[in-house]
Amino acid sequence: MFENLADRLGGVFDRLTRQGALTEADVQTAMREVRTALLEADVSLPVAREFTRAIERKATGQQVTKSVTPGQQVVKIVHDELVRVLGGETDPGPLKIDNPPAPILMVGLQGGGKTTTTAKLARRLKEREGKKVLMASLDTNRPAAMEQLAILGQQIGVDTLPIVPGEDPVAIARRAKTQASLGGYDVYMLDTAGRLHIDEVLIQQAADVRDVVKPRETLLVVDGLTGQVAVEVAKEFDDKIGVSGVVLTRMDGDGRGGAALSMRSVTGKPIRFVGLGEKLDALETFDPERIAGRILGM
Amino acid sequence: VPRRTLDDAMLEEIEDLLVASDMGVETALRVTANLAEGRMGRRLSVPEIKEILAGEVARIMEGVARPMPLYPKRPQVVLVVGVNGSGKTTTIGKLASQFRAAGKTVVIAAGDTFRAAAVEQLQVWGQRAGVPVLTAAQGSDPASLAFDAMERAGRDGADLLLIDTAGRLQNRQDLMEELAKIVRVIRKKDPSAPHNTLLVIDATTGQNALSQVEIFQKIADVSGLVMTKLDGTAKGGVLVALADRFGLPIHAIGVGEQIDDLAPFDPQEFARALTGAA
Ligand SMILES: Nc1nc2c(ncn2[C@@H]2O[C@H](COP(=O)(O)OP(=O)(O)OP(=O)(O)O)[C@@H](O)[C@H]2O)c(=O)[nH]1
Ligand SMILES: Nc1nc2c(ncn2[C@@H]2O[C@H](COP(=O)(O)OP(=O)(O)OP(=O)(O)O)[C@@H](O)[C@H]2O)c(=O)[nH]1
Ligand SMILES: [K+]
Ligand SMILES: [Mg+2]
Ligand SMILES: [Mg+2]
Prior knowledge:
Chain A is α/β, with parallel strands linked by helices. Helix content of chain A is 49%, strand content 13%. Chain A has an 8-stranded mixed sheet with strand order 3-2-4-1-5-6-7-8, sandwiched between helices.
């Protein structure tokens, strides 16, 4: 539906077809296209702006190698910078889940994929790392949310905390913590109700849960199709609850996934996993190269 | 109030405001150009600009603001489709409650036979709305459930049959084919059905909504849109791009998780929220 960056820049530079170094004027023309490509990929405006400025500095004066066109050269600069920002400066290392029982808190907006991702991750920890995992649903809000997690637990052979009707999320978190210690679990995962980043009551409730369990990882689960609001969501969840990593879901779709760049730039927190389907094995570790290519429509 | 001359720099700021609402670059440029026409060089205050912008947006949206049409059909079949997690099931609960309050008899079919506890979730909504929910076993064929539900709704003389479907991404051909089959089977029973096919779109969605509408329309003959989660801070600007490109009616908006949190789509209000006009 949208033109990719290579085509856009091809068009711009065809008219210029210069050799030698990229002049300031070339770069400025190109930046307009880069900005548009990022925005069409749903990168948030402030992030797109900052990113283009960084690129502009890097690209101006660069020699265009003989074997490529100026357009290809700019695409490469943009791509490399995307990979750099998406991947971060330092390797985040494995999830911090030694020290059993290690709590993992899952948070995010409504419908982003928290419950499904909780089960996917539990399955992965069980099967790849041999961890004994307990899952608990703190979602007292959405109809049948607890049943949903319990069914998923059965499907993957992972225990779920027994449902006690009427219990509030903080009490459930306490019970999960106790059960995880007594039951000899390596990891316990807390799935929470979806909440808006501006819902002060529910955000505070998640902060209360955090204070009770002191999670080793707090994963923000975000729909990969998210648009401009990504920056605000990531910032609020990180400020109010504290986020240690991001999971991007629905990356099996045909969305460009610009939210990845927005989230990463704003929080500085690693993107840990991507969801690639409804099935419980459809979770992969994050690969900056792949997402960079997608954002650019390549 | 301070005034500034409407120049290129200012137009760029306006364009940015629109882009930040998820309108997309192309539509934002067009709306900005409309605003600029005949006004370049004029001195305008920020509230005045927002007012004009809101007017532009409302003008585009007025043509598509339409409640879901009711037909003298019994049952009138309403198929609800969309990507995963957009709010289909919740919206069905809200719609059922509204139609019931309007004196209609309603039946719901739990056509998401895939997702864990999708049926249980809809059953709770059915109870809340006071409407029966027809179900089938998990993993069973949603098309045959739809067929059975039409028969049952017909027998019971229900005014409306609301059919939930599993969430599916529009690029997943297998799942889109499953949806096409649901429509085919429904038409076997009543060639004029589904009388409404509602595509539910999450307001946090960015430009992918364009692809959602394009493909769902192709496969399932979408007749109208519902945008959910407008109670958040996402402005839903992509609706403007959708109105511009597809012109599909927007029937309602979701503004919360409770049963009454479904409102008619009001173009004026939408435009004001989007542009920040007072
Ligand atoms: N295609 C696809 N669907 C996904 C993915 N992850 C989750 N889903 C689907 O998205 C929908 C919502 O997922 P949930 O796990 O219920 O989301 P949630 O965040 O727990 O939702 P709430 O608890 O209501 O806030 C379901 O239909 C899932 O099957 C993914 O990576 N790809
Ligand atoms: N804030 C807010 N949340 C909503 C709205 N509509 C639905 N939700 C929430 O979004 C989440 C997903 O809603 P569902 O109705 O389960 O979505 P769905 O499209 O049926 O999801 P799948 O069947 O998994 O594809 C739930 O947590 C709902 O409570 C809305 O208008 N505002
Ligand atoms: K979403
Ligand atoms: Mg959930
Ligand atoms: Mg549903």
